[in-house]
Amino acid sequence: MKLILKLLLNALAVVILSYVLPGVGVDSYQTAIIVALVLSVLNFLVKPILVILTLPITILTLGLFLLIINAILILTAAHFIPGFEVSSVLWAIIFSLLLSFLQSILHSLLKEDK
Q1: 102 Cβ contact partners less than 8 Å away, ≥ 6 residues apart
Q2: Which residues, at least 6 apart from 37, have a Cβ–Cβ distance to it below 8 Å?
Q3: b or e along 19-40 (b: 16 or more beta carbons within 10 Å of the residue's beta carbon)?
Q4: Buried b (16+ CB within 10 A) or exposed e, 57-85
C-alpha cells in the first residue's frame, strides 16, 4: 500500500513540475503515473549500472556527473513515453533536481512519528 502511495506522490510531483517548468510537459495524470513508474524502474535497474560504468568521471567531477546520469534517465523516459516531453538536457537536469527536492518533501509527509 505504501509503495502505491509513494508512486502516486511521485506522479503528483511530476504533474506539479510540468506546470512550473516550461521545458517539461505531461499530457495527463495517467501519463504522470506512467512517468513515475518508468523513472522508478530506470532508477532501480539502469542507474546502478551507469554509476558503476562512469565511476572514474564521477570521481573526477566530485559527483556532479550524477546530475548528467539523472538527466539521461529522464530523457530516456521522455523518449519512450508518449505524452511526456523534456525539451533539452538543461531542463532534464533542472527537472531532476526539483523532482528529488519535491519528492523528499512529499515523502516526509508519509513518515510516521515514533
Answers
A1: 13, 16, 17
A2: 7
A3: eebeebbbeeeebbbbbbebbe
A4: ebeeeeeebbbbbbbbbbbebbeebeebe
Residue 83 has what DSSP assignment? T
| % of the chain with per-residue pLDDT over 70 | 97
* Sign of the torsion angle spanned by Cα atoms 99, 103, 104, 109: positive
| d(C-alpha 23, C-alpha 87), whole Å | 5
Residue entry with cell 523532482 = 99
Average of pLDDT values for 66-94? 96
d(CA 12, CA 93): 19
Q: What angle do CA 66, 42, 103 make, to 5 degrees?
A: 70
Task: Report the relative pairing of strands 84-86 and 24-26 from DSSP bridges.
Answer: antiparallel
pTM of the shown model: 0.89
What is the average pLDDT across 62-91? 95
